[in-house]
């Protein structure tokens, strides 16, 4: 198996997970049990369902997730937790600051810290894509890494930075953007949306005007 991500995702001890699952499962309360059964059935039958577990702080959501994960790991099933970094899934211990009576802080593990940088994007790209100039045509290298960001404008800025590092000729593809005149009730409505304005729109699920 030569995919680093799959290797890492399978780097758990099945027997240890079995023991952990027995302990956790025996403690589940009724509500946790109902959700647990539903999720396990969904995975077993490959239904591909989404679940949203809601509950006030400290009511056992993480406990439930840990039980589900232990069960799936005991069957050698890959589980990708959103907090894959272990930040926020309970693995990194919470800390309490002086004068506080509840632990609500965590210390970000050393390996996630970028300690010196001139530009954050430059440094993140450097850490994620070492030797990008020479390896940009290496499919395996590209498959194993990605930079995730919740905001489109950050994604655009990172893309723009990385495009400059790509070799070869550049071609720009522009989208055709105009209001369809037949789709408006008012005859001159399309005049209110000049093409120059439409070209600046950056909508989610839509590529930008210039690629
Ligand atoms: N069924 C259970 N039996 C024993 N202990 C439990 C059970 N469910 C939860 N706990 C314990 O209760 C505490 C709070 O649970 P947990 O951290 O899972 O809550 P949470 O809903 O994820 O909280 P938050 O929203 O604040 O992250 C933990 O110490 C957990 O081990």
UniProtKB/TrEMBL annotation:
Catalyzed reactions per annotation: ATP + H2O = ADP + phosphate + H(+)
UniProt entry tagged with the keyword Lyase: no
Name of protein: ATP-dependent DNA helicase
Family: Belongs to the helicase family.
Domain DNA helicase Pif1-like DEAD-box helicase: 28-87
Classification via InterPro entries: DNA_helicase_pif1-like_DEAD, P-loop_NTPase
Upper classification of the organism: Eukaryota, Viridiplantae, Streptophyta, Embryophyta, Tracheophyta
Keyword terms of this UniProt record: ATP-binding, DNA damage, DNA recombination, DNA repair, Helicase, Hydrolase, Nucleotide-binding
Pfam families noted in UniProt: PIF1
Known EC number: 5.6.2.3
Cofactor: Mg(2+)
Source taxon at top rank: Eukaryota
Species this protein is from: Tanacetum coccineum
